[in-house]
Input
Amino acid sequence: MTNGEIINRVAESDLLEINLEDFYLKGERVLIDVKENLFQGLILKEKDFREFVKNENWSKYKDKFVAITCSADAVVPIWAYMLLSTSLQPFAKKIVFGDLKTLETILFYDALSKIDVEKFRDKKLIVKGCGKLPVPDSAYVELTRILTPVAKSLMFGEACSTVPVMKKM
Output
């Protein structure tokens, strides 16, 4: 305090906060589970599957992020996933093989790959930890991998309470 005035030292510091929620891509996430097309929950019959693909309204996936998987313990030929991907391609924003967690991880990796690391060179960075959107742990690891070579220091948390992660000497 100076002359009774409260000074916000955090606001005046050279710390730069990064919020991974800023990299969250807006849009609906959808899971397509091939198990719904298995005969007796075990076998994928090509003729039946191709009929399903032919008759499905793929436009309902317009502008959605889609994960394709099979949650049943069954052998699904690779061509079945490829066929789904081909049908989704004109409509979906993104198609991945895996569950919704895998989809989210890939979406964050895609977004983080576009970071201009030079704007973080020799900066003291805080990676914000709390938020409202689902940020996978893998996104924090990927961001750390991207920023470690360029940042002066990297911390986790809030400006008033950080955990040091990395500091260059």
Observations:
- The longest strand covers residues 161-167.
- Residues 7-12 have pLDDT under 50 and may be disordered.
- The chain has two domains: 9-25+106-167, 29-92.
- The radius of gyration is 22 Å.
